[in-house]
Amino acid sequence: MDNLLNKEELEFAEHMREFYRTEIPEDIRYRQAIGSEEGTHDDVVATQRILNKHGYAVPNWSVASGGQDWTPVQRHIWLNEMQLACVPQPLAFNASMVGPVIDTFGSQEIKDRFLPATANIDIWWSQGFSEPNAGSDLASLKTSAVKQGDKYIVNGQKTWTTLGQYGDWIFTLVRTDPNVKKQAGISFLLIDMKSPGLTVRPIQLIDGGHEVNEVFFDNVEVPVENLVGEENKGWTYAKFLLGNERTGIARVGESQVKLARAKAYAAATKTAKGSLLNDPAFSARITTIEAELKALEFTQLRILSTQVAGADKPDPRSSILKLRGSRLQQDITELLTDIVGPQGLDFVDSREVRTKFTTLPHGAADALKTYFNYRKVSIYGGSSEVQLGIISKALLGL
Ligand SMILES: Cc1cc2nc3c(=O)[nH]c(=O)nc-3n(C[C@H](O)[C@H](O)[C@H](O)COP(=O)(O)OP(=O)(O)OC[C@H]3O[C@@H](n4cnc5c(N)ncnc54)[C@H](O)[C@@H]3O)c2cc1C
Predict the structure, then answer these.
(1) What is the predicted pLDDT for the residue at 347?
(2) Ligand 1 pocket test target in 93, 130, 390 with most atoms within 8 Å of CB
C-alpha cells in the first residue's frame, strides 16, 4: 500500500505502525493474531482504553465528541495498520454503531450521558436489531414499545446478539407505531440490560464457541428519555448506522496477516518434496489469493480517495468491498484449514491440541475453529446476496 500514499500519509502510517507496536501489550496482540477467544472481553476493553487515552478509539466521531478531523485515507490507514499489528479493534457496537448515531442524532443531554462512557467502553453496547423473522428484511421487526406515561413497555425478541453476554446496554430498533408503513413506525431505543424482564440466552455455534445470543423482552420498562432522536424516525438512524457498519469491512489488513500465517504454516508442513510451500499447485493457490487481496486493497483506496470526508450517506461501492472482502476472508480460512488438515479436527479444545503439535507453529490448531467461525462474514453486515442486489441496482442500474 505504501507506494500509493503521499508523504504525509506515509508519515502518518509510520506513526500508527509504531504506536500500535509499542503501546498495545504483545500478549493481547498475540491472542488477536491466533483468533483466540481467551480474553476477548478484557483484551477489547484494555485496548480500547489505551486507544481512547490517545484519541484513537473513535476517530470517526465529530471532533466535538472526541473524534479526529481525518481524511478517509487517514481513517483507512488507522484501521489497516491496526489490523496489520493484530490489535483488537474498538468495539464496533460502541465506536462505529451507537456512538455515531448518538453523536449525529441525539440531544446534547443524551450525548453527555452516553458518549464519554461509550468511547472509553465503560459501557459495553450490544446491537438489538435482528429478530427471528427480521434479518435482511429488517423493517419487518416486531418488538414493540408502547408508551405509558414516562416509560415505554417493551415486549419481543432479538436474536444473533453478538457478545450480548457482556452487554451493559443494548441499542434496539422497536416498533412504536404498528399502523403506518413498516419503516415509518420504528424508533431507536437504548435499554439497560440489567432491566427486570430482560433475559439473555446463549446460542452455540458450529465452532463450539459462544459468540451470539437471543435477547428476550418481557414487559421491560424503559424511561422515555432513553429514546434517541425523534419517535418513529428510527429507520433513518438505522440506515445511517448500517452504512457505517460497512466501513472497513473488507478487512484487508487482517486478511494479509492470516495469509502470512498460512505461508508460515505451509513452510513448516513437510512433504516428500520439501515443504507444502514448494508445492507448485499449493503456491499457485496462495499467489492467486495474494493477487486478489492486492486488487481489493487498490479498489478500497480508489473508493476512499474519491469519498468526501464526513459524508453521512452510505457509498453503494462499499458493497463491492464487503462482498469481495468476505469471499477472501473465507478463502484464506479454507487455505489454512487445508494446511492444518485432520490435525485441526480436535479444535474444540484447541489449547490441548496446541501442546500436541510438533510439526506446526503455535496457534495453528485454531485454524479450523476460525474456518467455521468465518462462515458468518458473508451473512452479517448484509449478506452477500443482499450486496449483489445493491450492486446490481445502485451501481449497474439493472
Ligand atoms: C455471527 C453473526 C452475528 C450477528 N450479530 C448481530 C448482532 O449483534 N445484532 C443484530 O441485530 N444482528 C446480528 N446478526 C444478524 C445479521 O444481521 C442477519 O443474520 C442478517 O441480516 C441476515 O438475516 P437473517 O439471518 O434473518 O437471514 P435472512 O434475511 O432470512 O436470509 C436468508 C437467506 O436469504 C437470502 N436473502 C434475503 N434477502 C434477500 C434478497 N433481498 N435478495 C437475495 N437473497 C436474499 C440471504 O442472503 C440468506 O442467504 C448477526 C448474524 C451473524 C451470522
Answers:
(1) 45
(2) 130
DSSP string for 298-317: HHHHHHHHTSPTT--SPPTT
What's the pLDDT at 345? 54
**pLDDT computed for residue 136 by the predictor:** 95
Backbone phi and psi for residue 275, each to the nearest 5 degrees, phi listed first: -125, 165
Q: How far is the CA of 383 from the centre of ligand 1 (A)?
A: 6
- pTM summary value: 0.92
Half-sphere exposure for 287 (CA within 13 Å, toward CB): 8
Q: What is the DSSP string of 352-395?
A: HHHHH-SSS-TTTTHHHHHHHHGGGGGTTTS-HHHHHHHIIIII
Host H or E run for residue 330: helix 318-340
- Backbone phi, psi, residue 365, to 5°: -65, -15
Counting as low any pLDDT under 50, the low residues of the chain are 347-358
Residue 385 CA: distances (Å) to CA of 106, 275, 303, 314, 392 = 33, 38, 21, 18, 11
Residues with Cβ within 8 Å of 369's Cβ and at least 6 positions away in sequence, in order, are 35, 207, 208, 209, 344, 347, 348, 350
Dihedral, CA atoms, 386, 387, 393, 398, nearest 10 degrees?
A: -90
